[in-house]
Amino acid sequence: MIKKYFFWMGLPILLIAFSLNGCYYDNVEELYPNTNCDTTDVSYAQQIRPLLDQNCSFSGCHGGPNPAAFLDLNEYSEVKKIADNGQFESRINREVSDPQLMPPAGKLGPCQIETIEAWIGQGALEN
Amino acid sequence: MKRILLLALALGTIQSVVAQDDLLDFLGEEEESINYTSATFKDSRVINVQSNETAAKGVLRFVISHRFGRLSDGAYELFGLDNATIRLGLDYGITDRIQVGIARSSFEKTYEGNLKVKLLRQSSGGKEVPVSLTWYSGMYINGLRWEDPERENYFTSRLSYAHQLIVTRKFSKSFSLAFVPSYLHDNLVRTAEMNNDQLALGLGGRVKLTNRLSLNAEYHYRVIKRVEQDDPYNNSFSIGVDIETGGHVFQLHVTNSRGMFETAYIGETAGRWVDGDIYFGFNISRVFTVGKR
Predict the structure, then answer these.
(1) Domain spans of chain B?
(2) What percent of chain A lies above the pLDDT cut of 90?
(3) Residue B137 and residue A15: Cβ atoms within 8 Å?
(4) DSSP state for residue B47 in the 8-state scheme
């Protein structure tokens, strides 16, 4: 009987021990201290365009023949429009659990968001 | 010789009478059998939080869960029905007391493995045990693309864990409560000020309204939060109904949590009820007997 209880109690203890073994106490600030986010003179062609291509302006989302919400982010004029009306900054800054967050697959990284915000702050130029 | 035989017979008879007494004593003790409490909750979850129920030996349970968008988004988004997150899960009972499971959530593209063990079962009769104790552990793998693929990224940074001790008691045929302390761990957090470990205390309950319908609610109070100052997250509160139809259990509810796994609904609930961040959702489970019973 006692043996049986040791077995049932032992299972979770083993599991905790196993998972503690895989436990890390990391944070992005200390794990990547040398990652500088350079947001001076952000370039549309060099920085914003690749971000949009990778995360937003493909077929099925804001690209392709039927872009979502009739918003084709392959076009600079459309990107400029959402940059000026505040939607761009607003939608990428929602919480992960917010259904309005863009991109829906998951929040952009802090440096990516900072870069977009800096570009909008610098006038959202086609530079 | 006859005398000796008679004596032996008499002694043997006495001995067998004593033995019979022992046997009767033994049977007498066993007569009061142990009644294990069943159906404390209708399904393996109260709403989001795990209940003490597990899949029986050889039973595979398929659970489909959805949480839709905000009710306050209005008619344009069909009160949130246009935006859904989904969780698909499979639970399997290795024995009547051990259940293993795998799942995939669209929320942060998370893969999940879990284990649930019934440590102690509420019972009456021969053994009085006032509560059931159940252990639940989950491991979650965030499947999102690396935010910076150029830097040295570690697989362990994707992992988070949850451990829960589920204390349940069925007070009467129609009323059950669950008290669930939860320990959550994230291997990687964003800033040095954030906690990798979180601690929460959860309370869930069920009131049976009819044989097929019950009212459920749960609340999680975070004792140690991930972010202590300017906390963007809130405590999770959910309320809903369970409807049982044959081999299916439908759980319909409203909640301020969009995530459907432990580190998400306890640790990352961004919605606030007072702001109208209420999400309609459901869990549907179906059981299949696949193994030997």
Answers:
(1) 34-143+155-289
(2) 8
(3) yes
(4) S
Please name the residue of chain B whose CA is at the shortest distance from the CA of residue A26. B188
DSSP 8-state class, residue B71: G
Kindly list the residues from chain B whose CB atom is less than 8 angstroms away from the CB atom of residue A30. Answer: 192
| Amino acid at site B285 | S
* ipTM of the prediction: 0.74
Name which of A19, A35, A109 is nearest B137 (Cβ-Cβ).
A19
Give the side-chain half-sphere CA count within 13 A for B117: 18
Which one of A12, A28, A105 has the shortest CB-CB distance to B117? A12
Model confidence pLDDT, tens digit, residues B168-190: 999 999 999 999 999 999 999 88
Phi, psi (degrees; rounded to nearest 5) at B38? -115, 165
Tell me the two tokens of residue B283: 């869990």
Measure the CA–CA gap between A21 and A11, rounded to whole angstroms: 15
- CATH of region B34-143+155-289: 2.40.160.40
Q: For B52-111, what is each residue's pLDDT tens digit? A: 999 999 999 999 999 988 887 777 777 777 778 899 999 999 999 999 999 999 888 899
The encoded tokens of residue A79 equal 């990107």
- The string of pLDDT tens digits covering residues B197-220 is 999 999 999 999 998 999 999 999
CB A23 within 8 A of CB B183: no
Coil, helix or strand at residue B196: coil
Tell which residue, B186, B228, B178, has the closest CA to residue B51.
B178
Q: How far is B20 from chain A (nearest CA, A)?
A: 26
Cα dihedral: B169, B172, B176, B180 (round 10): -20
Contact of B236 with B260, CB cutoff 8 Å: no
The number of beta carbons lying within 10 Å of the beta carbon of residue A17 is: 9
Q: What is the mean pLDDT of chain B?
A: 86
Flag whether pLDDT at A21 surpasses 70: no
Tens-digit pLDDT profile for residues B71-82: 877 777 777 777
Dihedral sign from CA coordinates of B69, B71, B74, B78: positive
